[in-house]
Structure formats: structure tokens, C-alpha cells
Amino acid sequence: MTPPKRQRRQSQEHLPPPPAPTGKQKNPERLFVVAGPDGGERDGDLDLVTLIVARADPPPSATPEQAALLRLCTAPLSVAELSAYLNLPFSMMTVVLTDMLTAGLVTARAPIVRQAVADRSILEAVMHGLQKL
């Protein structure tokens, strides 16, 4: 077995310049900057399918993430959708949303679960209505 050949290092003069930043690249912020100071209890019962609805317009003191959430939540959206729209991880969304819930800016509600079997009385009423036609 022969050892690999060593390559010579190029001088800094011959290296190509670093690529210029494009519009798609952004300067990521640390997640603890978005989350704010740690001090409050965060024991919200939020999961991926919890629906979030805004209660008011964004106040002037709102962070950019909170303002974006309030603008998006004019109609009910799940935490998973909000996480995807804002490109934030779920754990970060729960922190931001819990802070907003305690401040009264948003309302969280459980998703509407459909019953597996429809109520018999409703089915009979529909059947009788169709027979009368």
C-alpha cells in the first residue's frame, strides 16, 4: 500500500475570494436572544396540533417574532404551521407562545377532534330528510 501524496499548500494570493452573501442567506440569531430572559415558569400544554389565535394587534413593545406570530394568527393556525412559517424549532415556538399566552396576546385551544362514528340520531334525521325529497 502506498501512502497518499501530499499536496502543497497554496499561498493566500492564489485563493479565490469568499462568496458574496446572497439574499437567501441570513444572519441567524441565537435562540436564547429570541426566547428572552429566563425567569418565568413555562409549563404550557402546547403540542404540535394546538391551535393558536391572536387576541390583538402587535403592541409596539413586541419582538419581531411575536409581531410575526400575531400577524399570522388572525385565523387559527397550529403550532407546527407557525414553526414552519417562522423557521423556528418547535421548542423555541413553545417558549415564545407560552410568554405570549401569559401576556394575553394569544389564545390556545385544543384541535377539534371528530368522532369516529357519527351520532345515530343525526344519521336518521338526514335519512328521513332525504326520503322526504
Helix content: 25-40%
Cα shape: flat
Q: Report the span from N to C terminus.
A: 89 Å
Number of helices: 5
The largest β sheet comes out as: 3 strands, antiparallel
Tell how many strands the DSSP assignment holds: 3
Q: What's the architecture of the domain at 42-111, going by CATH?
A: Orthogonal Bundle
CATH class assignment of the domain at 42-111: Mainly Alpha
Q: What name is given to the CATH topology of the domain at 42-111? A: Arc Repressor Mutant, subunit A
Within the largest sheet, what's the order of strands?
A: 2-1-3
**Strand-residue proportion:** 5-15%
Tell me what the structure shows.
By secondary structure, the chain is mostly helical. It has a domain at 42-111: Arc Repressor Mutant, subunit A (Orthogonal Bundle). The chain is built from five helices and three strands, in the order H-E-H-E-H-H-E-H. The protein has a three-stranded antiparallel sheet. The model has no long low-confidence stretch (mean pLDDT 77).
Features of the shown structure:
Arc Repressor Mutant, subunit A; DUF742 domain-containing protein; 133 residues; single chain; 5 helices; 37% helix; flat; mainly alpha; WH_DNA-bd_sf; DUF742; 3-stranded antiparallel sheet
Task: Please give a quick description of this structure.
With 133 residues, the chain is mostly helical. It is built from five helices and three strands.
Secondary structure layout:
Blueprint: H1 31-35, E1 51-54, H2 64-72, E2 77-78, H3 79-86, H4 90-103, E3 106-109, H5 120-132
Antiparallel strand pairs: 1-2, 1-3
Helix pairs in contact: 3-4
